[in-house]
Design brief:
The structure is a homodimer. Chain A is α/β, with parallel strands linked by helices. Chain A has 3 domains: 170 residues, NAD(P)-binding Rossmann-like Domain (Rossmann fold, 3-Layer(aba) Sandwich); 155 residues, Dihydrodipicolinate Reductase, domain 2 (2-Layer Sandwich); 86 residues, Alpha-Beta Plaits. Chain A has 15 helices and 17 strands. In chain A, strands 7, 8, 9, 10, 11, 12, 13, 14, 15, 16 and 17 form an 11-stranded mixed β-sheet that branches. In chain A, strands 3-2-1-4-5-6 form a 6-stranded parallel β-sheet, sandwiched between helices. In chain A, strand 14 and strand 15 form a beta hairpin. At the A-B interface, helix 1, helix 2, helix 7, strand 12 and helix 13 of A face helix 1, helix 2, helix 7, strand 12 and helix 13 of B. Chains A, B: Keywords: Amino-acid biosynthesis, Methionine biosynthesis, NADP, Oxidoreductase, Threonine biosynthesis.
Chain lengths: 436, 436
């Protein structure tokens, strides 16, 4: 049987990985898929870079429509990235009746509902394993491996750049800005790292997992997103002293009041497996009512790890392209008519535990005032750490871990605390999750 | 559409879990599968136990053939266990044209090749996600998630009982026999724990993963199997001092000389994620050439975790029963005509690192003799720990970590060591894997 003919849009790092892996493992892949996979034509505006990557292994064109409208092409891989031209081209490929494989989390997170609707109309596959957690087959696990479960929550380290930065900040006691520069020098962070360090990339991925886990539409626009740019090394240190590690987590939970969907730095107990995921590695912890906790760990980015996911999707296309569309695994795991439009709760409505750091005057009665404010909001204290004032200073750090409470209660308590004359400056608040 | 009609053979703990989860999550499951799943008839010799578990939710019979030959039954779940009657019934179900879902690792490990051949003949699905690592969707990850990769090796904590025992031995410094009794009392070990503690259960699972990873037949009969019954608390302690943890691993590797397939206690560096998998939890680390390391963690046993895997297989049957057999994912991941009969190497041929513990006389020249023996076999030393002799004793423990060498060289070195008059008693040898 003739190899399946693939068109590639965007010949960058991941595209290079796809070529390399397909070439190196073509025999192994065909032993599994029962059919070869061949990239026949590649579109990229940068002909020189494309030529370097493609190395005469495929035809190179500048016009993406020459790929999309090529009658021999059965699948289009989109590796352009971003929401702009990528969206237009993916919709054009679908309209042309091509199956699509994409690694583009931004695209799926922002325009997924529209794209899947178009694909459903044309009966084509849109596969996106590479869009979440790179080489880890987490989309397959959620869509197919855990189908027996009512999934209760997901918490993931799904951005390698920020996990690398946080690991370095902890190991070396350095501040964010210093480590970011180092990460950029080493290639772990991009020249413009905004999407990573502000949590947007993680929110894209969390939004996709949320939809697949709960059978709701992709709702990136409703996600609460905080990055790590304001995180101080001292909070990482205090968290360690209290037995916690700080990670940037993408979290989505099902609650009786709606869905939580949020990305922010989070304290987690040190002895959780996910707390020990270091450097640029990714991990996703999933809690299902039948299976309990499962965790999936691996490289979340990089040329070949991402190519691993892209090619796994191509193998699935080989297998399932001849299957009637209504028998395939649904794009977002749930049958289209069974997707429920559950509301994503505003951040004020969510319930979690908190780490608070206050700079307080070293005077009697300070603690009494603060604990009274918490008690007034019905917030109970789980642990408290008061540092000794340094010699010659009459101020000190006070760290409080609370039990679970609603965010708006906590915000109200903080507002009251900052008004106390003995509380000097703002109150640092970091959310805490037990993940058990 | 009418729910798919399922027959169940064996109404025990897992069968109960399947009923409970199907009932509790029927809506969620149908939202995904697009069709309901209904257990219509259950066969069990113990009518009383069956009645308790089934609770009028299905017809109960004593004769398994009444399930197999029921024309309304489309899928048969086999939860009897063991190689005996389970094999006869699974083959009978296949012969009757039924799809089969089984949690029976012994059956697949020992008779898998025969069963898959029969199933291929009849064009039916035989699904066995629950046979390896319980609720963790590791079969799906290996068969479908990592299809781009040349898988190089797998190392798994795939027996919860022994991992629980090893965790307790380390935490409490207790010996094997003591902890085993405690584990039996708590229900973590069975009354007859032979299959678990002797490594046989882990070897069943490793044999299945080996076949799926490398595209070879299931070769349980060629696995090298050592359990944890001879493991001393002191070795766990010394390993910790050297920065290692001891786990019972199921290991399978691809080497230029053949396939390694072995189960034995193994030292692994403490900072590996898998070294931190505690209690009865399971984890499987997979190394693929494109994706690098991925790891899958969760509950490897228990009623609902196992049911989670069984029901995921049922959902797959709902989806793929109408797909032509040659388009489905092959039973053992590779197309039948592409399975290669690669030899499993005898244990003497494998290459790994070693932990050695010797009781030696506290005399000059002892170390020189021992290191010379290792040097003669071309074995280089990675670390050495000599304990101070206790007051009044003229013997001491010597611990050696070696670099990689072939097992037969190590055995030869040990034979020479035991002949030294300064080496008192036998030499304890535990294999060591870096897993990087």
């Amino acid at each position: 049987m003739k190899p399946i003919q693939v068109g590639l849009l965007g010949a960058g790092t991941v595209g290079g990985g796809v070529f390399t892996v397909l070439q190196r493992n073509h025999e192994e892949i065909e032993r599994r898929a029962g059919r070869g996979i061949e990239i026949a034509v590649v579109a990229d505006l940068d002909q020189e870079r494309a030529a370097q990557i493609v190395q005469n292994r495929a035809k190179i064109v500048t016009d993406a429509y020459q790929v999309i409208n090529d009658p021999t092409v059965e699948v289009v891989i989109e590796l352009i990235g971003g929401y702009g031209i990528a969206k237009t081209l993916v919709l054009a490929a679908i309209a042309a009746g091509k199956h699509v494989v994409t690694a583009n989390k931004a695209l799926i997170a922002v325009h997924g509902n529209e794209i899947f609707a178009a694909a459903r109309e044309k009966g084509v596959i849109v596969a996106f394993e590479a869009a979440v957690a790179g080489g880890i087959p987490i989309i397959k696990a959620l869509r197919e491996g855990l189908t027996a479960n009512r999934i209760e929550w997901i918490a993931g380290i799904i951005n390698g750049t920020t996990n690398f930065i946080l690991s370095e900040m902890r190991d070396k006691g350095l501040d964010f800005e210093v480590v970011l520069k180092e990460a950029q020098r080493l290639g772990y962070a991009e020249a413009d790292p905004t999407f990573d360090i502000e949590g947007i990339d993680a929110a894209h991925k969390a939004s996709i997992m949320s939809a697949i886990a709960f059978g709701v539409p992709v709702q990136f626009d409703k996600a609460h997103v905080e990055g790590i740019t304001n995180l101080a090394a001292i909070d990482i240190k205090y968290a360690e002293e209290l037995g916690y590690r700080i990670k940037l987590l993408g979290i989505t939970k099902r609650t009786p009041d709606g869905i939580e969907l949020r990305v922010h730095p989070t304290l987690i107990p040190k002895d959780r497996l996910i707390a020990n995921v270091e450097g640029a590695m990714n991990a996703v912890q999933v809690f299902g009512d039948a299976v309990g906790t499962t965790l999936y760990y691996g490289k979340g980015a990089g040329s070949e790890p991402t190519a691993s996911a892209v090619i796994a999707d191509l193998v699935d296309v080989v297998r399932y392209q001849s299957v009637p569309a209504d028998k395939r695994v649904p794009y977002l795991a749930f049958q289209e008519d069974k997707v429920i439009n559950t509301v994503v709760m505003p951040i004020g409505e969510i319930t979690t535990s908190y780490y608070l750091r206050l700079k307080v005057a070293d005077e009697t009665g300070v603690l009494a005032n603060i604990t009274k404010i918490l008690a007034d909001q019905d917030i109970s204290i789980d642990a408290l750490l008061q540092k000794e004032a340094l010699a010659g200073q009459n101020q000190t750090d006070l760290i409080i871990l609370t039990h679970k409470t609603q965010e708006k209660r906590m915000l109200s308590a903080i507002e009251h605390m900052t008004k106390l004359p003995t509380v000097l400056g703002g109150v640092i608040k970091i959310r805490l999750e037990e993940l058990s």
